[in-house]
Amino acid sequence: MRRRSIRAQRSIGGLILAAALLALPTTASAADYSFTTDGTPEYYSSTSYEDVYDAQYNYGGPNAVDYQIPELEYGQFSTTQTGVMEKALLPGLQAHVATSTTTTSGPGGYGISGSGSSPTVLPGVDTSAITLPPMPQFTELTDEFLLSNGAIGRISIPAIGVRNFYLWQGETASSMNKGLGHFTSTSVWDGNVGACGHNRGARYNIGEIKDLDVGDTITYTTSEGTRSYKVETVRKIASNDWSYLEPTSDNRITLITCVAGDYSVRWCVQAVER
């Protein structure tokens, strides 16, 4: 009987404990968190040599970083093709650097400041084997250059009967109604002289330049004198192709006119001074 009483007491105690635990408040729960960002974060770009120079580093040998050249400030002119600050001499490196402070290209040469008129010779460079590409030529239009009637000059093309067509400033209808129009972006004497004219239906037209042959003559007379040019190119070009009007190192004349019935192309003739 006593054992049963003890067991009963234990059972009752257990029930009371369980009831007490169940009565406790159960408020614990997972917390809610909210995160926001400012959009796509910006990271610094990789500084790895392979990423920066797109090449593996050559230990013990030359690398691309060895030939980096500082960017020139606006208006400064470099007389070298690759600069004068390299750690190693490169093929074709110009050996002479002008250091005159009175040159038309600006004060001093690249990387060198000087006051003399003689060039600086870089050590270890054989100057006898070095040739530099010729510089483009360009003559600006001035009032003094104009003829007495205000024209820039006269153009003749004997093979197609063009005689003394005056060249007027501006690639405009007004200019072409009086003769030929001068492309204002081109030279008026030295270098590349660009001119345009009507194709047909006007007193002054040069539509027949398409019939010129290589070797035909074009003459150009200005206040500076007369030059004769030999035709080297007769071809159609895209109407938005202005590459034939870029400055040149030789003296040449470029004539451009429309193509009848096709506004997407132009006739272009280039002749080089004999």
Please provide a written account of the structure.
The model is unreliable at 79-117 (pLDDT under 50). This protein folds into two domains: 47-124, no CATH class; 153-273, Sortase, Chain: A, CATH 2.40.260. The radius of gyration is 41 Å and the shape is elongated. The chain has 274 residues and is α+β, with helices and mostly antiparallel strands. The chain has an eight-stranded mixed β-barrel with strand order 3-4-5-6-9-10-8-7. A two-stranded antiparallel sheet has the order 1-2. Helix content is 12%, strand content 24%.
Features:
single chain, 274 residues, alpha+beta, Sortase, Chain: A, 2 domains, eight-stranded mixed β-barrel, two-stranded antiparallel ribbon, 12% helix, elongated
Short description:
The protein contains three helices and ten strands; from the N terminus they run H-H-E-E-E-E-H-E-E-E-E-E-E.
* SS strand fraction: 15-25%
The appropriate CATH architecture of the largest domain is Beta Barrel
**Structural domain count:** 2
* Low-pLDDT regions: 79-117
The ordered H/E elements are HHEEEEHEEEEEE
The gyration radius over C-alpha positions equals 41 Å
What CATH first level of the largest domain would be assigned?
Answer: Mainly Beta
Could you state the CATH homologous superfamily of the largest domain? Answer: Sortase
